[in-house]
């Protein structure tokens, strides 16, 4: 049994589903954002008996069967204010939103663990380390990382540094506009501030996005330096004049170090961000276990969606 654990309207998942349909291979797709719909999802876990029953769209899942599960994405950012009848003030809405998020996160772990019996995970959703842990693992595996400081004072911090979130990027909606947190050059620093992450600014030749798939590295060079808008963070996309991107081959020793890192993180797949500096060093930045890989697959003709499909079939046959 192959299960695709994803969300609705997720392009990469849709394209992999197309391969299953074309090759007439059986699969079950679970859109985790639909689990809040009791007409779609039925779940009963009796702790005393250690027994779980689960139905997806009125079809019971045989939890004792051998399963290969591709974890694409299990959560989706949603605003909860449309689900509540009364208007909350800002502080109470913030607290209530945090409470609901934590409750749902706790349930998702129970849900995932219920699926885990006789399961080969590709990959297990709750194994990723924090950003700082990953940087230390990368360093231990021989990868070069930027000079990194976590500080709450300006003593060492100046315009030779960039800053980014300590954890995950987040987006904010205001009216019809959407604002996201990006990597930013430090321009002005207060004397004291909350502990924040800073890294020495790398003089870049270009950026490299690598999709890692079960030991293989599929890389793409991104010439973000040619555009002021994308020079610091290529995710500040210029849709009118996109960055030039080309297939790329990392040095063998860098790929070997990435394999060691991914093994330590117990990951078979992930999107990896690297900077090639003008000093000819490769600087590791981060791993996103569920990162988008369509942006690498299509410009470089890697056909990664097909390769993921083939891996799932291979895992099922060998499990």
TrEMBL record:
It comes from the Bacteria. PANTHER family: BETA-CITRYLGLUTAMATE SYNTHASE B-RELATED, RIBOSOMAL PROTEIN S6 MODIFICATION PROTEIN. This is Grasp-with-spasm system ATP-grasp peptide maturase. NCBIfam families: GRASP_w_spasm. The gene is gwsG. SUPFAM superfamilies: Glutathione synthetase ATP-binding domain-like. InterPro entries: GRASP_w_spasm.
């Amino acid at each position: 049994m192959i299960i695709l654990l994803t969300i609705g309207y997720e392009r990469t998942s849709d394209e992999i589903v197309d391969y299953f349909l074309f090759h007439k291979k059986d699969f079950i797709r679970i859109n985790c954002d639909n689990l809040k719909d009791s007409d779609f999802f039925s779940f009963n876990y009796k702790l005393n008996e250690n027994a779980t029953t689960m139905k997806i769209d009125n079809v019971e899942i045989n939890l004792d069967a051998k399963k290969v599960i591709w974890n694409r994405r299990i959560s989706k950012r949603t605003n909860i204010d449309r689900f509540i009848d009364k208007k909350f003030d800002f502080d109470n809405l913030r607290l209530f939103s945090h409470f609901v998020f934590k409750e749902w996160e706790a349930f998702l772990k129970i849900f995932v663990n219920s699926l885990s019996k006789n399961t080969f995970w590709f990959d297990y959703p709750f194994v990723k380390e924090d950003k700082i842990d990953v940087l230390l693992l990368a360093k231990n595996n021989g990868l070069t990382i930027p000079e990194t400081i976590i500080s709450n004072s300006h003593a060492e911090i100046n315009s030779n540094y960039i800053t980014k979130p300590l954890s995950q990027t987040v987006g904010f909606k205001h009216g019809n506009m959407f604002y996201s947190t990006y990597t930013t050059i430090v321009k002005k620093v207060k004397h004291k501030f909350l502990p924040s992450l800073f890294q020495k600014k790398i003089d870049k030749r270009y950026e490299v996005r690598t999709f890692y798939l079960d030991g293989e590295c599929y890389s793409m060079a991104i010439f973000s330096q040619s555009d002021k808008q994308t020079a610091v963070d290529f995710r500040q996309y210029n849709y009118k004049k996109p960055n030039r991107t080309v297939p790329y081959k990392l040095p063998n020793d860098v790929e070997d170090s990435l394999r060691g890192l991914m093994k330590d993180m117990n990951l078979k797949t992930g999107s990896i961000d690297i900077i090639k500096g003008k000093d000819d060093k490769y600087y590791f930045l981060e791993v996103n276990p569920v990162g988008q890989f369509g942006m690498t697959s299509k410009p470089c003709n890697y056909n990664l969606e097909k390769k993921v499909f083939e891996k799932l079939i291979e895992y099922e046959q060998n499990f």
